[in-house]
Amino acid sequence: MIDILTDPRFKGIKPFDTKLWLASPTMHGDEQKWVDEAIRTNWVSTIGANINEIERIISERIGGRHAVALASGTSALHLAVKLAAEKLYGQPMPGHGALEGRRVFCSDMTFDATVNPVAYEGGESIFIDTERDTWNMDPAALEKAFEMYPDVKLVVIAHLYGTPGRMDELVSVIRKHGALLVEDAAESMGATYKGIQTGDFGDYSIVSFNGNKIITGSSGGMILCKNAEDANKARKWSTQSREDAPWYQHEELGYNYRMSNIIAGIIRGQLPYLEEHIAQKRSIYERYKEGLRGLPVSMNPVDLESSVPNYWLSCMLIDKDAMAHQVRGECEYLYRTEPGKSSPHEILEALAAINAEGRPIWKPMHMQPIYRMNAFVTASGSGRAHSNAYIHSDNISDVGEDIFTRGLCLPSDNKMTPQQQEVVIETVRRCFG
Ligand SMILES: *Cc1c(COP(=O)(O)O)cnc(C)c1O
Predict the structure, then answer these.
(1) Looking at the domain assignment, is residue 383 inside a domain?
(2) How many Cα neighbours within 13 Å face the side chain of 220?
(3) Can you give the residue range of the structural domain that contains 236?
(4) Which residue has the CA at smallest separation from atom 11 of ligand 1?
(5) How far away, in angstroms, is 282 Cα from ligand 1 center?
(6) Where are the beta strands (DSSP E) in 275-337?
(7) Please, is 432 exposed, middle or buried when counting C-beta atoms within 10 Å of its C-beta (0-12, 13-18, 19+)?
């Protein structure tokens, strides 16, 4: 581990007294008001004014969609995938998933919460490689996947780090093949693509209010549906699937996925600050871009021609020829210190040494042991088909693996001051000394 105090490369740099987080909650005061109001009026369960109000606000913001507040983004993804699956394949028998025997195309470089609901429903994810312009699903790889697996009717796409994917192309490939889209906008609330809010592209979409997201309720999520019928179904499923009867009557499998009115109070207090948070995150991104100029690195791409990102996390990618030697096992790593070069783990250790939190890029799903048997499709059609081994005909790593190897997430907390960020930037610079 790097010791800032003794390593001559970091001479003069002092660790922060209090930890600088990757992305921590930023409270403003109104959160307390709405939580207190819920307690004062005794609306502390899963019904109440806070829930109604945040559903109204999100609906207004995201295309007039029918919004249902849920316990988490993950539960919202589960219900979104289940709604899509039942629309395509019908209601399964109890004890069976709605996707049994079915394949689903999924983003590869993302948080596993994006893709796990496919497995919850007994389906098989096929991972689609990433493109370099936005670090999201590659439309060419998706097209290739439909050629290889023409039976697939469902696609799950995430917008990584607040940068929208190339939705025109992705949606047109999906429509051409008559498939449905589940859109994971957990990281991209407030970001737009060609003027349209992320969350307004999917047949079913979701947002998250997890503790490190741009707007947080400490936890929470929402499903966004195009019509009231689907939203009502999600609401019913999320509250144990009670039928309209005097007793607990059940025709369908139920879940306890509804959001609490207390959590909704925090979110209600947060939502007016979305634009402010985006502006802060954007300044952070721009200061990194400026401050890292001249180093053999680039920032995570933002396609400003067609989109306005929310800049949730600032990330950097080390140029190929400036990568110091680094090897990774499943749970450990080693790296070498080389003059003029660095590696994600060296930089992450240097950040930890100044009491700042960074993070590796999401490890692609096709590299995760849990999904080692799943197929993976790249734009060239290589990748692997149902085997544990990589098949790289050209011996060039796929895009997701490459970004995971050379990239990292930088401290991106709204509350980071320009002075603190200067220290972070200087620390990164010294890693290349
Ligand atoms: C955070 C996140 C989720 C899950 O949201 P939770 O509210 O934490 O359950 C899903 N997908 C992506 C891409 C995320 O970043």
Answers:
(1) no
(2) 27
(3) 30-271
(4) 114
(5) 21
(6) 297-299, 307-308, 315-318, 326-328, 333-335
(7) buried
Domain assignment present for 174? yes
Does residue 291 contact residue 425 with C-beta atoms inside 8 Å? yes
* Residues 199 and 278 both lie in one domain: no
Q: What is the pLDDT of residues 153-185, one digit of tens each?
A: 999 999 999 999 999 999 999 999 999 999 999
What end-to-end distance do the CA atoms of the chain give, in Å? 17
Residues 260 and 289 occupy one common structural domain: no
- Tell me how far the alpha carbon of residue 26 lies from the centroid of ligand 1, in angstroms: 18
66 touches 59 (CB < 8 A) = yes
Q: Burial level of 62, CB count in 10 A (0-12/13-18/19+)? A: buried
CA-to-CA distance for 24 and 53, rounded, in angstroms? 24
Those residues whose C-beta lies under 8 Å from the C-beta of residue 82, and which sit 6 or more positions away, are: 98, 117, 121, 237
Same domain, 251 and 324: no
Domains of the chain: total: 2
Nearest CA to ligand 1 atom 8: 210
pLDDT, tens digit (0-9, with 9 covering 90-100), for 337-358: 999 999 999 999 999 999 999 9
| pTM for the whole structure | 0.96
Write out the DSSP string of 355-391. Answer: TB--EEPPPPGGGSGGGTTS-EE-TTS-EESSSSS-B
- One domain for residues 227 and 107: yes
23 contacts 413 by C-beta, under 8 angstroms? yes
280-302 pLDDT, tens digit each: 999 999 999 999 999 999 999 99
Cβ neighbors of 256 (< 8 A, separation 6 or more) are: 71, 238, 239, 240
Q: 395: Cβ–Cβ under 8 A, 6 or more apart, which residues?
A: none
3-state secondary structure 62-100: CCCCEEEEECEHHHHHHHHHHHHHHHHHCCCCCCCCCCC
End residue of a domain, out of 271, 291, 306:
271
What is the best residue among 208, 214, 259 to mutate for testing ligand 1's pocket, by most ligand atoms within 8 Å of CB? Answer: 208
> d(Cα 347, Cα 409) in Å, to the nearest integer?
10
